[in-house]
Design brief:
Oligomer: single chain
Mean pLDDT: 81
Number of helices: 2
Structural class: alpha+beta
Helix content: 25-40%
Low-confidence stretches: none
Distance between the termini: 21 Å
Strand order of the largest sheet: 1-2
Length: 71
Amino acid sequence: LTKAFAFVRVNGDCEASAIHAELRGHYEGEREFFKVPKAVFILPEFPRTHLGKADRNALRRRVAELLTKPY
């Protein structure tokens, strides 16, 4: 993946659109346009490796699935 994507894990009952709008506003105010994530993915949990670290390969596969899924 060559585009910037953001992954957010939320606790509790949060509305995805509100989180997305808040993050988008923060990124656009603080970063150059090319550093602003193209999409924000809100997940209940991050996938983990057997060592307990965030599994970045699983996240990449998830993005690829979501981007190629027909609407």
